[in-house]
Amino acid sequence: MYDNKWMNQFSICWNGMTPLVKRLSALGLPEKDARVYLALLSFSEATVQTISKEADINRSSTYVVLERLIKRGIVSIGATHGIRKYVAAPPERLLQLAKEQTERHEMLSKNLRNMLPTLSSKHRGAYYRPKVTVLEGRQGLIEGFEDSLSLKEGPMRVISSGPDIFRTIPEYLSTYVQKRMEKSVSMVGIHPAEPHSMNAFKSMPVSKSLDKHYFIPEDKYQFPADLGIYDDKTVFMSHTFLFTAFVKSRQIAELMKVIFDLAIKEAQGLGEKFP
Question: 11, 37, 158, 182: least surrounded by Cβ within 10 Å?
Fold first, then answer.
């Protein structure tokens, strides 16, 4: 004689319910929940005792599972002659739940995508990563100069490419110098000793208390772009390709300041100081 428990398990396998349990479990329904729901589908309504026996789950666990399924809207409670009985929701309810879950996941993904820039900016590691911004055109060059007026830790260290700057934004330079004098933004500069640049410097207002400029032999050192270093920024300006690139990084800026200060020592012995 086979015992009832073995016969019950054999019946479940034989009726093809085990594969359904596995598939429902794969879709997110816990195994016991799937077994109870599938067992209840076999009846129009059933008591806990009947469900427990059909699903091969002890009675106390069946109560817990049924409560869980009721909360999910997969099972409802009925009563016949005062006896509590349970009713399975149509299988279409599972499809509806899956659709709702998919919509929730899509909404969550959308919200996370929108939040990602803010979350990334708060990420501790982001503090150490350089932030690069590129501005294009003559307006980009002007915005690069304007940003330097916000200097907090002087002096600003500058290497210029010579006459190129007077070619690309000549009308702006005198305005910039005036603003810099008004804001007391100090500068230390290294420039090529070519006539156009030197004459331009001498014609613009320069404060001896704010500025120190060194002109080095043009035939020995030629700079293809301008370089500015201040606060936590290293700024590259190309007058050939008309763009300004900001590299915001305290570590990089501190390194470039050290390199610049070493270059100043060399410039002091090579050329002419102004003013």
Answer: 182
Q: What is the total count of domains within the chain?
A: 2
CATH at 47? 1.10.10.10
Q: How many angstroms separate the CA atoms of 158 and 227, rounded?
A: 6
Q: With CA atoms as reference, report the closest residue to 193 among 114, 88, 272, 261.
A: 272
Q: Is there a single domain that holds both residue 266 and residue 140? A: yes
pTM above 0.85, yes or no: no
pLDDT 10s digits, 15-71: 445 788 888 887 778 899 999 999 998 888 999 999 999 999 999 999 999 999 999
The secondary element (H helix, E strand) that includes residue 25 is: helix 17-26
Which residues have a Cβ under 8 Å from the Cβ of 144 and sit 6 or more positions away?
135, 228, 235, 237, 244, 246
Query: 269 with 172, same domain?
Result: yes
- DSSP state at residue 73: T
85 occurs within a structural domain: yes
